[in-house]
Structure formats: C-alpha cells, structure tokens
Design goal:
Layout: H1 8-11, H2 13-19, H3 29-39, H4 41-54, H5 64-79
Length: about 80
C-alpha cells in the first residue's frame, strides 16, 4: 500500500500510476485523492463495472475506453482543470 494512495491504491491500481506524476508540492494526497474520487466517480464506476463484467477472463486493454476516460478525468483533476 502506497503512502500516496492509501487503501484506495488496492481498489484502484490505476490511481497509483496516475499519481506518480503529481507535483511533490501536493502534500495532502488524501485531499487530492478525495477530489479525484468525487470528480471521477462516474468514470471509476464505468471502468470498475467493465473489469468486473469480464472476470475471470481479464485481458490487457479489455476496458481501454473506460480506462482512458478515467485517466483523462484524473489527470484533469490533478492539473486543476476539473
């Protein structure tokens, strides 16, 4: 479990990758993560639903459209555009 994502890192592993690029000035990662989850909840639900519907036949890029929407939303929150 990363200090950056806390327990959410296990639930949303993609957040771990996205938060790597966060400016080190962002000391309140819990606040950032909260903003991401509030702003990108719909995208996270779509991505999670897509992955859950494919279990146990999980494949690379199987939910790429949903992942890219979540990634885009998350990056916009990080950049302050959301």
């Amino acid at each position: 479990m990363s200090k950056r994502t806390g327990p959410w890192g296990r639930l949303f592993p993609c957040l771990e990758l996205l938060l790597i690029n966060v400016d080190m000035k962002e000391k309140k990662s819990a606040s950032l993560l909260q903003r991401i989850l509030v702003s990108c909840g719909a995208q996270a639900k779509e991505y999670g639903g897509c992955v859950a519907s494919k279990i146990p036949e999980v494949e690379h890029d199987m939910c790429l459209k949903e992942f890219l929407a979540l990634k885009n939303c998350t990056q916009n929150v990080i950049k302050g555009k959301a």
